[in-house]
Amino acid sequence: MTLGLLDWRRRVTALYASVRETAAPVAAHQLWCAGRAELFRTHPESADRSATLRVAPYDPGWRFVVEVDPAVPATRIELPTATDGVVPFQLIGRVHLPTVGDLDVWWLGSYGGGVWLPLRDTHPDTYGGGRYVLDTVKGADLGGTVDPGTGRATLVVDLNFAYNPSCAYDERWACPLAPPGNVTAAEVPVGELLPG
Questions:
Q1: Eight-class DSSP state of 55
Q2: I want to staple 140 with a disulfide (CB 3.0 to 4.6 A). Which of 42, 60, 84, 135 is the partner?
Q3: pLDDT, tens only, 17-36
């Protein structure tokens, strides 16, 4: 399983690198959908090879390039999982998204680190535990900028790329779910929907 998971993560990282290199967001989304569907269908580490991934059509109104607001209280959470033990996260900022509201941006506080941006919305056809938009430790990174001099950062937060964590497909996977600062009263009808 370990080396198979390594291969899965390498493929996801390569897929997101191709997405970032594709200038047109619609074409990048098509590439992402096809790549994710192929991984789910064929890879031994797939959460469910029989699942038919359902993804809403691309809507440019749900793509944002936003500055990370670092004016947040020092907050640390520890999310218990059945397979990975306790997973620590540190709040590093917040993004302000029109029509969605504010979402917390977290830093994975264990070896390697990474940005984590989950989202739980109220759309009846999305996973109730929330979806992930960014999870850079696993390669899910849509891009952005960081100014090393000022520390100012932007993130590409394209909700068309919101995807279900593995636990939405198979209970043997235990995934950190969206904490309260990543829950919105808005319906977000784009991205990956409930499994078919």
A1: B
A2: 135
A3: 999 999 999 999 999 999 99
Q: Please answer whether residues 52 and 195 qualify as being in contact, where contact means their C-beta atoms are separated by less than 8 angstroms.
A: yes
Rounded distance between C-alpha atoms, residue 110 and residue 99, angstroms: 33
In a domain, 9, yes or no: no
Is residue 7 situated within a structural domain? Answer: no
Looking at the domain assignment, is residue 101 inside a domain? yes
Nearest-angstrom CA–CA distance, 30 and 57: 9
**114/118 Cα distance (integer angstroms):** 13
Distance CA 16, CA 22 (A): 10
Both tokens of residue 9?
């993560």
Q: In the chain, how many domains are there?
A: 1
pLDDT at 1 over 60: no
> Which of the two residues, 47 and 26, has the higher pLDDT score?
26
In terms of Cα–Cα distance, which of 135, 191, 185 is closest to 163? 191
Domain extent for 69: 59-182
Give the Cα separation of 25 and 135 in Å (integer): 19
